[in-house]
Specification:
globular, alpha+beta
Length: 123
């Protein structure tokens, strides 16, 4: 089932490298507009938000649409790792505010070591 939006976390990335990747994967990327701590643009018709250091050294990439090439966070994270060769983390499935704290701390880590489920306490 396709998720309504996508969010992944990337380590040691910058929004310019992300824009280049999104331009290839989705479509032309508009100029980034800084709004406080966040950066916003559009990749094709998809609204994009980049939040540097959202969780420690991890940067959040949020694609606010279901009109992406990826059905879910994990598919996007795999594509990001393949294109950018940097560690990526994402939730193992759609996220729901009703989830327990234990479930909310389950993440998928994709790196040169492979893919694994981890516990990542983000608060």
């Amino acid at each position: 089932m396709r998720q309504p939006d996508i969010e992944i976390y990337l380590k040691d990335a910058d929004h310019k490298a992300i824009a280049a990747w999104l331009g290839q994967a989705i479509g032309a990327v508009s100029e980034w507009r800084q709004q406080g701590q966040t950066y916003k643009c559009r990749a094709g018709e998809v609204p994009v938000t980049w939040l540097p250091k959202a969780v420690g050294k991890w940067h959040s990439l949020y694609l606010e649409s279901d009109a992406t090439p990826w059905a879910d966070d994990l598919a996007c994270a795999r594509a990001a790792f393949a294109a950018l060769n940097m560690e990526v983390r994402c939730a193992p499935g759609g996220w729901d505010e009703e989830e327990s704290v234990e479930t909310a701390d389950r993440w998928i880590r994709i790196s040169s070591d492979g893919e694994e489920e981890i516990i990542w306490r983000t608060d």
